[in-house]
Amino acid sequence: MRITSVEPFILHAPIARGAISDSTNTITHWGIAGVRIATDDGLEGYGFTGTHAHLASDRLIAACIGDCYAPLLLGEDAADGDRLWLKLARYPALQWVARAGIAHLALAAIDIALWDLRAKKAGLPLWKLLGGATSARLEAYNTDIGWLSFAKDKLVEGCVRTIEQDGFRRIKLKVGHDDPMVDVDRIEAVRKAVGPHVTIALDANGKWDLPTCKRFCARAEALDIFWLEEPMWYDDVGSHAELAASTAIPIALGEQLYSADAFASFMGAHAVHYAQPDVTRLAGITEYIRVADAAHARRLPVVAHVGDMGQVHVHLSFWHPATTILEYIPWIRDCFVEPIAIDDGHYVRPQAPGAGCTPTDEAMGAYAKPLRD
Ligand SMILES: [Mg+2]
User: Where in the chain is the domain with CATH 3.20.20.120?
Assistant: First the structure.
């Protein structure tokens, strides 16, 4: 499996429903900053990271893949995954300028492509290559009905519809208004409409400060909240630890963390109850496994954040024993040869060899962006 070419690409896939917002972002497209790695035995591996489809920063990721990492990979054996991850992640010149951020997003795409290659070589879906499924069913929770930009009546209507028509029993609502009582009012309306048996998680996307969170949680505790996700600034371990100790609502976080060390800081401080690693930010599957295993050793559940919109995480979630549920946002599923699929609120287990990242020719034709002007 000698690597013969490493080619970055960028896709910008439109969000079918149009612009959506959370407390900190408004987007119209999901960016797929990816890489195709070919080997001398005729295989092609694909991996990608997820972005807000901002072309200038996507080009930085593509340049990191093509200009910085590709020369380190050409001629290497794609089977040597752990060694290659270390070679790239610890490359002195790159480590000097980027131990997180763009370098980790770029490394994520490459590491996923190398896992995709190894799974294809073995003729197995990734979850099988990793050791097989540890649960028969993987329940999905729907995030795509709970955006902050939805008016309250549309929010309630969408939640009811996805439960009654799509079979979901778990939903997540975005929160993070300047006045948190606006969020309490929206959650109360949803809880009243869906009844007591539907699981409701919340996501503030890092918006609030500690006093606002305490005020919000004091009111929200009565609404049976499954978790409050990223209530405060992503790196603030101390404030999350204090909040976790002061409220009955479990704290979830991790989608903005770049390393196993960052997760260790939160877990060591008892600042997180649900670990939410994401392969697209964590420099790939290799580091994700370290995080998931560390959380599992502490008996913490792992619920991946889907910066990949689930294509890779569905494999990791069927496999890893700390995971029983997975986020669902179906924005880019049609871009892939084997798209994620849901049946009665549960993920369908992938069957094709690989990591679920091979784009369709149609997507490459319709959504590709030039790497340079
Ligand atoms: Mg989130």
Answer: 128-347
Residue 11 forms beta bridges with which residues?
Answer: 32, 368
104 is catalytic: no
- Count Cβ neighbours within 10 Å for each residue of 255-285 and write b for 16 or more, e otherwise: bbbbbbebbbbbbeeebbbbbbbbbbbbbbb
Tell me whether residue 320 is one of the annotated catalytic residues.
Answer: no
* Fold for the domain defined by 3-123: Enolase-like; domain 1 (3.30.390)
Question: How does residue 17 score in pLDDT terms, banded at 50, 70 and 90?
Answer: confident
Tell me, in angstroms, the distance from the centre of ligand 1 to residue 321's CA.
22
Q: Which residues contact 113 (CB under 8 A, 6 or more apart)?
A: 34, 35, 36, 37, 45, 46, 47, 357
pTM above 0.70, yes or no: yes
Please give the DSSP secondary-structure letter assigned to residue 141: E
For 254-285, what is each residue's pLDDT tens digit? 999 999 999 999 999 999 999 999 999 999 99
Whether 16 has a pLDDT exceeding 90, the answer reads no
Is residue 18 over pLDDT 90? no
Pick the CATH number of 128-347 from 3.50.50.60, 3.40.630.30, 3.20.20.120, 3.20.20.190: 3.20.20.120
Give the distance (Å) from ligand 1 centre to CA of residue 140. 15
**Which residue of the set 12, 29, 121, 174 is catalytic?**
174
User: Which part of the chain is CATH 3.30.390.10?
Assistant: 3-123
Q: 126 is written with which tokens?
A: 């990734």
Cα angle, residue 327 at apex, residues 210 and 22 outer, rounded to 5°: 45
**pLDDT tens-digit map of 177-188:** 999 999 999 999
